[in-house]
């Protein structure tokens, strides 16, 4: 990867087709929320634009049964990606799965199968989960520390399983009747604190060796975990200075692990609103803001901040500092909480601004403007080493994905910032990553 | 379902494209064992023939690392079916998953997603697993009794989760901004011996209400379990008289549960070899027998029979009765073991014949002949109430699937025994099952 403005970006596309409130539009396809077809259309849009990957989170609970929240129900993402693997050829497929609430042998099989079926296009967004314990017999979710400890061992186990078939174990020697070489398939005999797994995996080595490791590590523990394992780091950043500091910090941590920092791509989320003119973009953005349900969003913010009560604060007042928790003391999403604490403390944001930041983009960056302006924003952040690219979330749903692919990406291509064609077949190829040892 | 010979059969197609030894054929596609393409071809063949479903087992271990065994490595089936859901329109998709080594909340999500993405075409082959404990931290596999007890509770939990969204919970009321009705999404608050699960599921009710329940219940416990839950019963039968007795017994058990026996389809496996003439079929069958590795198959039989030593018995001798175990005392697959014990005791089968039954069809029925003869066999068993149809496993791989679809199915259609067109969209429709209450 070369330096400065001309280096190549990596772009992921959030795999959704309905903006959170967009469903009320008469033309929305809200009825198809659980159907394959609209996801296939997003996937095709992303592939046409030669994007690196489709990405999608996943949740285990049904938070706040809220009648306006179309997304409370969410298809299991690895299953959805398997369907999309069968309808795409080149684009990467990044899905989320929990190390806290799954078994390593099962998840290793699912991801290996996905990597085989997609010819090596799978990425695994590794999460330790911030919810869901009540579905798995826990009284409360294991602590931050314990979750990350289990996650480290989980990754050790699945990595050993994926490596349990050596690359040349499959022979298909018809003449001698030898399908595979049993000497090249090894047990792993893992005996750890959290897992005992004998191995080998019962699936041949995946095409990429293993899925690309993706992580969203906002907290201290999360950053260290990302530094040890991640090849893509997702992050929520809405301030270029803070994003630069995060970027420097993570790359430094990666280097301290003896890894090549250039091979870890930092991709902040970016909620994009595209208009034909500046005025149209402004109008779309205003409409986006107008859709926020401040009452509901305040409850979400209170929950993110560890249960603080903000109900007596006027929307146009600042949140008193003594109401704000120490992010480090929070069990769930301390990094994400920090963004809002910073906004309130350092930027003097009113409650309304906090709720806008949460309600429109969950703390991620936002940009609205003409295709040119959106491209400028992307180029500026990348040039300033605040990002290696973005995980783009179109605020206008399927139409927004189309606008990004057809209007913004060509500008980035013309500026030499983004590929015009895929040069390889696997997600590792798209990211310029070397083979797994 | 009408009575006698003219009733409609249900036919599943084993989702494989390589016969166990066929891979040595120069024209085989053994190199594609882990690629999507050949499975798509099998799926298209099955759908063209209007078969009820594709079916496939799954295993968690890598038994007997044996260099001739192409199938030791096996893709995770639910992931494979998700990919096939995206490439097919009507055929049912039946996959295997374990109640012993998965969590109900996770499996409920995967199967609900599959049912959504396939528009209601999913069946779940419920297994309690006979291997794999060493991958999940167990010293030994939980006993037969405990596995079935857990399986009963597992089914209770996942059924509650699938029912946790009432059918009319999703409103998509644009005018009033109400996506779903929170009063119609219910927690399940399950507190059982094996599981504590709060619910609700975070995915809307699947199109079929829940997947079609499929079970292979050979043992006493298995038959009772099937009687309580199954809508399709897979079984290994290689004798029409025993198959009739099994059929009567299972249907009676179903009725004793207060269920309609006509709505439970009993489908024995059937390994099919099709020739253009009787002589050609015989020759193909002989070639099939000649491929058996008697040494390896004997080890498999010894293991199936609970570790008995048969190494000193000549292939053309009978197995002494005192060497044969009581099937009921076996932890793994007592029902399958019974088939071989019966063959040895009642039919006086030589060791060679036992190994042929195991090595070619794992105890399932076998038929070889012209398309007409294969159709006759199917009609005869169905007419004699030994089966409601078959799970067909073509011994000639992809070519065999094509022969079955193009040569045998039309005969069954001409005889009025099998549909010429799908009349519904879901697997429940194909099976003539009423909606889930």
Q: What is the CATH architecture term of the largest domain in chain A? A: Alpha-Beta Barrel
Assembly type of the chains comes to: homodimer
The H-and-E topology of chain A, N to C, reads as: EHEHEHEHEEEEEHEHEHHHHEHEHH
Determine the CATH topology of the largest domain in chain A.
Answer: TIM Barrel
Keywords:
437 residues; TIM Barrel; 8-stranded parallel β-barrel; alpha/beta; homodimer; 38% helix; two-stranded antiparallel sheet; 2 domains
Question: What would you say this structure looks like, in words?
Answer:
Two copies of one chain form a homodimer. Chain A is an alpha/beta fold. The first copy, chain A, has two domains: 4-269 and 384-430, Alpha-Beta Barrel (TIM Barrel), CATH 3.20.20; 276-369, no CATH class. Chain A has 13 helices and 13 strands. Chain A has helices at 36-48, 77-85, 104-117, 144-162, 220-229, 240-256, 278-290, 294-304, 334-346, 351-361, 371-383, 397-414, 427-430, and strands at 10-14, 53-56, 92-98, 122-127, 170-173, 178-180, 190-191, 196-197, 212-215, 232-235, 265-274, 365-369, 389-394. In chain A, the strands form three sheets. Chain A has an eight-stranded parallel barrel with strand order 1-2-3-4-9-10-11-13, surrounded by seven helices. Chain A has a two-stranded antiparallel sheet with strand order 5-6. In chain A, strand 7 (190-191) and strand 8 (196-197) form a beta hairpin. In chain A, helix 1 runs parallel beside helix 12 (397-414). The longest helix of chain A is centred in the middle third of the chain and has 19 residues, at 144-162. Chain A is globular. Chain A starts with 9 loop residues before the first strand and ends in a 7-residue tail after the last helix.
